[in-house]
Amino acid sequence: MVPRTDPLTLEVVELIGTVVARYHEEYEEAAAEHSLTGAQARVLGLLSHEPMPMRRIAQRLKCEPSNVTGIVDRLEARGLVERRPDPADRRVKLAAPTDEGRGTAARLRDSLHFAREPLAGLSEAERTSLRDLLRRMLGTD
Amino acid sequence: MVPRTDPLTLEVVELIGTVVARYHEEYEEAAAEHSLTGAQARVLGLLSHEPMPMRRIAQRLKCEPSNVTGIVDRLEARGLVERRPDPADRRVKLAAPTDEGRGTAARLRDSLHFAREPLAGLSEAERTSLRDLLRRMLGTD
DNA sequence: CAGATGTTTCATGTTGTCAAGTAACTGGGT
DNA sequence: ACCCAGTTACTTGACAACATGAAACATCTG
């Protein structure tokens, strides 16, 4: 019943685990530099692309909507995000970044060095190859 | 000031973000199947390799030692882990998995499908290539 | 003995779930 | 057109887990 996993696959899995760990570390660190928690940074990053209803944020974060209420509350209290009515549906509240929120999101993105610097060590051909392999792994092809 | 990032690199970074998200999802899901939280599963996994002092667990998890106290408390309350004195230093408590804890850890590892199934779609040459690229990215070479 | 180290406890804040409540939309049936 | 039942969006409240920081305690080290 135990799936047979050859050493090569195991090594790749372990490498991915390391990538995941490092990515998280750097993400939290970058968020902390802007006095944000990881969850707050993720939401702000989402909203900086486009405003969206609370419900949609919850779907993206894969958590309960009631949880999003609190996170947006805290972002709103700090003036980084605001709630707007949705003209098409009065039940809906659209969360949108303020100007300051947009600025913070941009600075946050820039301080997210991960994978950008390490990737610089790879040639363009290698990066293309890495992209294709990751795509296939994720079934994004 | 903004580091120039070509579209290819950006895409790779985004793909890695997706990998990270999916990895976490599956990890939490696998943990939940055994009625564990993510943090508890991580600690149990750590200890299943070898017992270690609380302090070391905190270093591995990159959190405060006082946090580990609570996580190990909950694992101990469920009979998955026990605290033993360290014969060499009476201040230290070694956390070690019980037999049941070892079993749970093993079942947990087996239910961690991530990357194993997706990787099956790659040929051996491709997996080797992916391994080498990840190694170089991580500076593990 | 003085200082450093390992663990716990306490206070506090954030994230997460679930259940209940309110407001607003939707699709019948009359 | 109207109303009503059911659904959907969001919030609130209770509660558990996770996380930090400060303070307490026992123990080690020089």
Automatic annotation (TrEMBL), chains A, B:
The keyword Oxidoreductase does not apply. InterPro entries: HTH_MarR-typ, MarR/SlyA-like, Tscrpt_reg_MarR-type_CS, WH-like_DNA-bd_sf, WH_DNA-bd_sf. SMART domains: HTH_MARR. The keyword Transcription applies. Pfam families: MarR_2. SUPFAM superfamilies: Winged helix' DNA-binding domain. Residues 9-139 form the HTH marR-type domain. Keywords: DNA-binding, Transcription, Transcription regulation. This is MarR family transcriptional regulator. It comes from Streptomyces meridianus. The lineage of its organism: Bacteria, Bacillati, Actinomycetota, Actinomycetes, Kitasatosporales.
